[in-house]
Amino acid sequence: MMLSLSTVGRRATLWSVRTSRPFSHLNTVTTEDLAYFSKVLPPSNILSTLPPICTSHDDMVPYNVDWMGKYHGKANTILRPRTTHEVSEIVKHCASRQIGIVPQGGNTGLVGGSISLDKELVLNLGAMSRVRSFDPVSGILVADAGCILQSLSDHIAPHNHIMPLDLGAKGSCQIGGNISTNAGGLRLLRYGSLHGNVLGLEVVLPDGTILDQLSTLRKDNTGYDLKQLFIGSEGTLGIVTGVSILTPPAPQATNNVFLALPHFDNVLPLYQVVKRQLGEIMSAFEYMDRTAYDMALSHGLGPVLDAKEVGDSRCFVLIETSGSNEEHDLDKLNTLLESLMTADEPLILTGTLSQSPGQFESLWAVREGLTECVQKEGKPYKYDVSVPLADFQKVVDTVLERMVSMGLHGDHAVSKVMGYGHIGDGNLHLNVIAKRGYSSEIESALEPFIYELVASRKGSVSAEHGIGSMKTHALHYSKDSVNIEWMRKIKRVFDPLDIMNPGKVLS
Amino acid sequence: MMLSLSTVGRRATLWSVRTSRPFSHLNTVTTEDLAYFSKVLPPSNILSTLPPICTSHDDMVPYNVDWMGKYHGKANTILRPRTTHEVSEIVKHCASRQIGIVPQGGNTGLVGGSISLDKELVLNLGAMSRVRSFDPVSGILVADAGCILQSLSDHIAPHNHIMPLDLGAKGSCQIGGNISTNAGGLRLLRYGSLHGNVLGLEVVLPDGTILDQLSTLRKDNTGYDLKQLFIGSEGTLGIVTGVSILTPPAPQATNNVFLALPHFDNVLPLYQVVKRQLGEIMSAFEYMDRTAYDMALSHGLGPVLDAKEVGDSRCFVLIETSGSNEEHDLDKLNTLLESLMTADEPLILTGTLSQSPGQFESLWAVREGLTECVQKEGKPYKYDVSVPLADFQKVVDTVLERMVSMGLHGDHAVSKVMGYGHIGDGNLHLNVIAKRGYSSEIESALEPFIYELVASRKGSVSAEHGIGSMKTHALHYSKDSVNIEWMRKIKRVFDPLDIMNPGKVLS
């Protein structure tokens, strides 16, 4: 995902503010601190530009620059502890010295949450990558926070279990980071959110205390469920070091269909029919509008449907099923398609059911390829929002109308406004493509207009990606002042010195 | 569920402590307070023994005594607000006057969480029973906290949706109470916990502030997920007044099977086979040991299996499926049974598949009738614990062995020790029947032995029922001092005056 200029602009502003007013309450790592850390960690687990370590700039880059190359941190020291105890020792020292700490997982976030803003120490969890236990009967996995999502998937695959979440970044992202950012991803519709699937956490608090809530119980009503606070708080309340998570059995069969609909009015009725008919096997219900579909085709994806049959369809839907019996699932899908095709007032114009693993992949490719196509089309302004299902396309149309009415629609400015996303989750990816590059004119036409539009529908300005340092200015569009005040109170209780990921979530 | 004498004993002790040391920091409702409340609420929504209201003792009973008749409160005033604004006004007044408040839903809890301990005001949510909205497309229901669970089920049934939780108390319990106690119930295995299904809450905080987190979004990563703190905190952090909850589509078909296994060693392998073969349609996997099964039969339930085929089976399992296609589900169940029956080393001795709604009910009746049978057998000591699946029967056997070794096993003391519960959730109901009634000898043989046993397996001493006022002394068996200390800190942030359900959860 690219950063929109608007955000670059805002960030630049933030930076200048920060340069004139850095974290005055925090200290920077000195050679004395480094000497202390060297007693806790072996040299291989310390990177620092300070003597005697003197790590090269290049070796610091993977920790100081995010994967998109968008956020550039200034940490002079990176620590890679191997145990919870080591994390605790480091944090205790930082608390006593009032040194800021940025907890860092795979550094695959999209909002600058894992990059230092002002020379805070980076505490990277990558060296904590041990699976602590897996119980194939209950499906409960306990692992270090630094375990990479894909490696956990690989670990449990022989037992016919899967992780309850799946992300594009699975080869790099860490489970601790997934939890700290409340990652959603592709399996949320089926398996629910991490607030339901995480059974326990081990967290090092900002004073170095180890809060052990690493339960492997599905049911436990003994007092406040404190671990929930660390899910999605982006490392601002403490450092997740261990995770207990419920993993579901792997489905035995997966299938998908791709459908064309005349207009958005039919999408929600279709969603209802499909939910009822496919029931427990529906695992994805993905949406894209005509603009997105045509763009995919123009970039060589598909076609997955006959152009004549598609006609002037305005909307497309990809439905995936995951079940325990291929024959049953295909039977359900065929029955569904037949009833859709033969209805008196059909909701769909045409559709196709994948007949092979290859076809399954190519149907998905149209949906999954959209992000890449968007990048090729121009400079995208991307918004990751949640809105009520009924407003899904209306948000896109409203933005398009605004571009048209402001004379900004066309190859000279905004060539395309499109929407796609997860209907099942209410998560819309709104993409506005600036054909000739970002401009302040487009930017100011889009923001805060879109945030206000989303807020007017009681939506979320960040459905999945979080707040990080990028969206602190936009938090108030989705959370009122009472909520933000209470977030600040919670932050102060856990982190009165404001050393834990300072400047993130709450600016 | 009956109260064990042990707990009565402990409560009596607590009471005497409380009588000598009541809530000295709290004030009791006076006629002046009543005059204020009369400005906020109509007379019909105020009950008070104070003049000029002078409600009779009998009319106060439903609010001052829990449904089991176990906990007797001393509130002189009960308020039944109709709106969130009214709740807020009442709480503001109580905060200014430092009057304790007991939030009360259907009063169906099992641990005395909704009864006043020392003349605190009871704030009953029953008059807030409006469904605010239901979206049949997304399945998202928004309702007042005082809505009765069954009435919500009835409300969404015509749209083919069900509530994600189901409890024995559904005809009386309120959704706000369900959430405040993090109710589990019969559908947890299939639909997960309330931490995943609750999308938003509206809460009146102990200072009267309305915290509006009544989101209808499935995905929202904008800051801390504060609402999670109110799920399961038993009204000690604030009063839940509104709820947004995700409701799943109603299954089109339900079926069940009842199986006999030679010994517990086969239960977990069976659970794995069933999980794999039934996959997404498995909605319950209930367990009972031989003692429980025989007891059920002796009370006229069943028999559901042929006695000869049952032989000396030690364990029994009830499996339920819920799916969208009856034919497919029966096919899966038949295939499962066939493979179980014809295996070279069968895991089961015999089993039966219900062939009609009547048979479906009678299979369930054996499991669901256990609670009533237990009551008829004598005075039961009941424990609601979570333990790792592998330890399920071991906990029961260990307790039985202890009774035997202490000479307490037999009709003169403990006639039966049995276990049943939800294998899928790891939730064991351990029942110890004192044939001739409770005795301090039995009690001291059981406690703290059982709590320590559960703690030694990292289990939970309260899987579902919560802590309330009954188990505050046992909290430390499942939560260490760091956790409890942090619970206290959270309590102090939200409720520095300690007016909100004082003496509950944290004593």
From TrEMBL, chains A, B:
Q: Which SUPFAM superfamilies match?
A: FAD-binding/transporter-associated domain-like, FAD-linked oxidases, C-terminal domain
Q: Which cofactor does it need?
A: FAD
Lineage top rank: taxon? Eukaryota
Q: Keywords on this record?
A: FAD, Flavoprotein, Oxidoreductase
User: Could you name the Gene Ontology cellular component terms for this entry?
Assistant: mitochondrion
Task: Name the chemical reaction catalysed here.
Answer: (R)-lactate + 2 Fe(III)-[cytochrome c] = 2 Fe(II)-[cytochrome c] + pyruvate + 2 H(+)
Q: Where is the FAD-binding PCMH-type domain?
A: 71-250
One family from Pfam that matches here is FAD-oxidase_C
Task: Please list the GO terms describing molecular function.
Answer: D-lactate dehydrogenase (cytochrome) activity; FAD binding
Q: Which residues form the signal peptide?
A: none
Q: Does the keyword Electron transport apply?
A: no
Q: Which PROSITE patterns match?
A: FAD_PCMH (PS51387)
Q: Which Gene3D superfamilies match?
A: 3.30.465.10, 3.30.70.2190, 3.30.70.2740, Uridine Diphospho-n-acetylenolpyruvylglucosamine Reductase, domain 2 (3.30.43.10), Vanillyl-alcohol Oxidase, Chain A, domain 4 (1.10.45.10)
Tell me the protein family, please: Belongs to the FAD-binding oxidoreductase/transferase type 4 family.
Name of the protein in question: FAD-binding PCMH-type domain-containing protein
User: What organism is recorded for this protein?
Assistant: Pisolithus microcarpus 441
